[in-house]
Write a structure and sequence with these properties.
Shape: globular
Order of helices and strands: EEEEEHEEEH
Mean pLDDT: 94
Number of helices: 2
CATH superfamily: Gamma-glutamyl cyclotransferase-like
Strand content: 35-45%
Low-confidence stretches: none
Radius of gyration: 15 Å
């Protein structure tokens, strides 16, 4: 059986340099991109982010696009993903679709989850948090 490839959008710890980026070590980097402006973006305990569809007042969220095999997706990346997220299809800014991890229904209401949609993506959010810590604010 052939090992078909698909596109995978990542916007958090699976991005290059992230804590679970090794899950994409066998994938081919396509480039930086962003979602269509129809998503909310949540931080889960400042550990990882998640996308949630919001067609009414959503945002465009930056990330990276990879070409992955099913084997890489299911054996290397998905086992590293947190249980609050699930695999789904999202819309990118160019109108095309891609696989991505999204917020599992109801988990955005858990303690320690905050909406960071307007803060410019995961890396920008982490940089802002780091800057606040160095200044002694939270």
């Amino acid at each position: 059986m052939e090992n078909y490839e698909l596109r995978m959008f990542v916007n958090g710890q699976a991005m290059s340099g992230g804590e679970i980026s090794q899950g994409l070590s066998k994938a081919k980097f396509i480039g930086a991109t962003s979602t269509a402006p129809i998503y909310d973006f949540y931080s889960f305990r400042d550990e990882f982010p998640g996308l949630k569809l919001n067609r009414i007042s959503g945002f465009s969220i930056p990330g990276e696009l990879y070409s992955v095999t099913y084997d890489t997706l299911f054996n290397d990346l998905l086992p590293l993903e947190p249980p609050e997220l699930e695999l789904s299809v999202i819309q990118l800014s160019d109108g095309s679709g891609s696989m991505a991890m999204v917020v599992r229904e109801g988990t955005q209401s858990l303690a320690g989850v905050s909406n960071i949609s307007s803060l410019g993506g995961w890396r920008s959010y982490l940089q802002m948090k780091s800057h606040q810590k160095s200044k002694g604010t939270s």
